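@channel sequence for tomorrow's demo:
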Amino acid sequence: MALAILMPVVASMGGIAGSQTLTVVIRGLALGQLAGNNKRWLYNKEMWVGMSNGLVWALVVGGISYLWFSDPLITLVITLAIFINMSLANLSGVVIPLVLKRLQIDPALSGAVILTTVTDVVGFLSFLGLATLIIL
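structure tokens (generated this afternoon):
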């Protein structure tokens, strides 16, 4: 039951983190602020931001889940899954609009749909995969 309660949290937090990055990148593309070395700098910055946010929020949600369920294995699963999903969400928030622009597709039209799919799939797979490996 605890897994069913916590699973949507992973996907939701990844989606929120990724959408913030997606918005920043699409705005930068629209204003012509992203070119050449800026793309590499932004990619590196967002990876560190994603990993930092992922770590902080993973520990917060992990702590809450431990208080709620008193199960260290469930805590480990949710903590790792949130860290993984938030880190990859930021990476996706940078890569998706850049790839769409290169394909001459407006990132503002398609970016959010693709990002949501990525963060949901990564979130559910990491959460359920880790639960299978750690708990079962």
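heads up for whoever presents: The chain has one domain: 9-134.
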